[in-house]
Write the structure tokens for this entry.
Amino acid sequence: MEKRKGFEFRILEWIKPALPVMGLLGLLAAVGCSSGGAKEAQPQGPQALPVKVEVAQAVPVSQSSDYVATLRSRDSAIIMPEVEGRITEIRVHSGEQVSAGKVMMEIDPRKQEATVSSQIHNRTAQEANVAYAQQYFDRTNGLYQAGVVSKQEFDQAKSSLDSAKAQLNALDAQVSEQQVQLHYFSVVAPWSGIVGDVPVRVGDRVTTSTQLTTVDKPGSLEAYVYIPVERSPDLKMNMPVQILDGQGKVIADSRVSFISPEVDNTTQSVLIKAQISNHQDQLRQLQFIRARIIWGTKNEPTVPVLAVSRIGGQYFAFVAEDAGGKTVAHQKALTIGDMVGNSYAVLEGIKPGDKVIVSGTQFLVDGAPVAPQS
């Protein structure tokens, strides 16, 4: 045991002078390791993404609003009977081309024919009364000239003759009136045109307020557009109006020809009208159609369609802007207007001169560094 302790004592004596050197080497090693680790942990920033940009330019853009319009024929006749009765014959069908004066329907005329016949018989009886009164007057006049009858009898004979003639004239007028009324039992076309819907049937009883059908002249329509009262101060005569189809294509150009002086109390809107040419018969009476009112033009910046994204109903675009000496992409919320060629007119969100990013937008986030390229 005493030998072992002596051996350990001699080893310690041998290592003791080397301890300061070993400590210094360990310290240098620790510093070196710490320095190397710091260099490896230092983060490197993301590289700038090369993108193509276009400078937003202000161009004249039409300021317009779209509304639902109703088309009405400017030469459309609503056919209603002049008399009451039961329909006995319908000679036309919906969509048929008719000429002016063509008989379209017949209403049972027998009651009226009986009335006319009765009036004619009354007139015939009155003609006999007039003939008798004339004979009596002629005889009384001769006797009066001979001094056989008094002046009073002569005046009575003349009065009877005048009264009989007056009654005959009244009956003549009544017969003429009833004969004219008889013509109304044949419903005729007021002009040449196309027959509309025929809602009545043979056997239906009609009155003077019953709509039988319509007759429309082709090629002449008018757009009825109701404008919100808030925009009524901007309305002017001859303002451009465009009629659009379902795909937004302009199929007719017109101008405002009428502005109502009154506001519709139920809809709080103002009625305007615009005449529409319909030479190719693309449009129909009472058709709902899209009408675009052109309020004027204004210089607005435009953005290519490819640069615009839509998220949750909101439009966005990226703009390259300088931020502390580097260029980054900033996402802008847009309020867009009408299409101008292959671009959107921007009402809010981008101003002329902004550098709009038009490529690589699917890889961008707000604040990402970019390298703009013309």
Summary: Helices lie at 2-15, 19-41, 110-146, 151-183. Residues 1-9, 18-39 have pLDDT under 50 and may be disordered. The chain is about 30% helix and 40% strand. The two ends are 90 Å apart (CA to CA).
